[in-house]
Amino acid sequence: MKEKLTAELERFKEIVETYGAREEAWPADDLPMMQRLLDTSDVARSLLRQEAKFDLLLQQESLVPPASAALLGRVLTSAEEINQGSFLKSLWPFGALWQPAAGMVMAACIGIFLGFASPDIITSTDEDTLNTLVFSSTSLIDLENDYENL
Question: Torsion-angle region of residue 120: left (phi > 0), alpha (psi -120 to 50) or beta?
Answer without folding.
Answer: beta
